[in-house]
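Subject: Interface between my chains keeps coming out wrong

I've been trying for a while to get a sensible model of this assembly. When I model each chain on its own everything looks fine, but I need the whole thing in one frame so I can look at the contacts. Pasting all components below, labels as-is. Any help appreciated, I'm running out of ideas.
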Amino acid sequence: MQGEKNMRKNFELYKNIGVHTITSIFTVDKGVVKVLLVKRKNEPFKDMWALVGGAVYNNELLREGALREIKEKTGLEGVKIYESGIFDKLDRSPIMRMIAVTYVGIVDINKVNVLSETINTEDASWVPIDKVKRLAYDHNDILLKALDTLKELIVSTDILKGLFPNGFTIPEVQKTYEAILGKEFDRRNFRKKLLSLRLITDTGKEILFEGKRPAKLYKFDKRKENKSVF
Amino acid sequence: MQGEKNMRKNFELYKNIGVHTITSIFTVDKGVVKVLLVKRKNEPFKDMWALVGGAVYNNELLREGALREIKEKTGLEGVKIYESGIFDKLDRSPIMRMIAVTYVGIVDINKVNVLSETINTEDASWVPIDKVKRLAYDHNDILLKALDTLKELIVSTDILKGLFPNGFTIPEVQKTYEAILGKEFDRRNFRKKLLSLRLITDTGKEILFEGKRPAKLYKFDKRKENKSVF
DNA sequence: TTGACAAGTGTATAAAATACACATATAATG
DNA sequence: CATTATATGTGTATTTTATACACTTGTCAA
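Reply #2:
Try treating it as a single job with all components included. I did that and got this:
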């Protein structure tokens, strides 16, 4: 068959496809969605900002490679990541054929502390998504896709659990939804919907923000790990 | 940093990750969902049945590689394929580290003719999904994931257009949904929903099936290419 | 004490999903 | 020709879900 010949002809080339993982790590900080960027230290794209990622080793799973890169480049550990897509344009890297398997994660803004303790702030930074400039490689495209994936995930999975390790108030969750989805909800209807799902429970505690009426503190119900939120 | 050392140590290994595409091509034949399998001619897994796929060349996109493999192994052309997932277990191939980028497609059963003209039926076969035995590699896992993907796609995209190139009747579409989703719909409500979306138009023609009342023939509205069906 | 601010709460209306029964067009049969 | 079997076609009432909308409450600061 014709294909067999091509196969042989292209075999050496085929051996040279590189595999990278690239993760868009988000947080929501006072109603602003931010993404974690790192400054590249090597060519290509030296000194440009980029999403977190790198080459996958032969002896690790893609997901493991992604988590390793996150830890090495930012100090963050235990991030829950979700598949987002695959990027494989032939010229996406100037060095060699390279495909990128991309992931999405979201973390509590307080983990920024961890970041600043272990990594020079010149090397890693939380950037509001509408302030992101030209990134290395095709990372701008990857980021756009990641935001789409994030929008799908917050209405169909419990991905936001990772954002509220110490409980949350309903207005807080609402602001997070509004920031990520880019639209507003009626306060009464949002609360009604969230409570009707019976995925969260009232802790009985309250929490105060600068001289306003205290808000009730809720937490995700542990018994319903993987059900969708919206 | 510690990772840098590992990087160097693993570089040779990293160069040896192979990239495959694997496509689950479905059809629905008289209410039965079938998948297209091909018999392997070479080791590993020689003579076992497998999904359609193979190594990606360095000079082609993943999607192009998938379509090339489909054409080479089954003769099918012009199949619209959708991303399904990535499979990367370290031992999924006994030969080398291999990651599989997987796709899903669905085609009109009448293209089976094309198949039998160009390919020996010993080499390729439509198999009902509940009759699929042990496949090569991890293709049973890939098939399960592909079915999940297909279920999502038929309620959120116009993927079924590819299944009805010459128009369709509403009961036909309903049977297809029921076969793929594994549940039944009320006939009146299904028709109401489908028509309310205004994605299909009445052709004015009718079609007959063996001594029953003729059914109206519809077609997808060309102006609304990419809207979701359910 | 008053004002500013965000949190908390209930009801009425509209839209969507669901449940449900009978008439009709064809081919096959006697 | 009348009868039967079979799958198609059609409308309405009910339930569920989503949406729209206004006033009261608790805290801090002035």
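Reply #3:
Confirming on my end. Residues 186, 188-189, 192-193, 196, 208, 210-214 of chain A lie near DNA strand D (CB under 10 Å from a C1').
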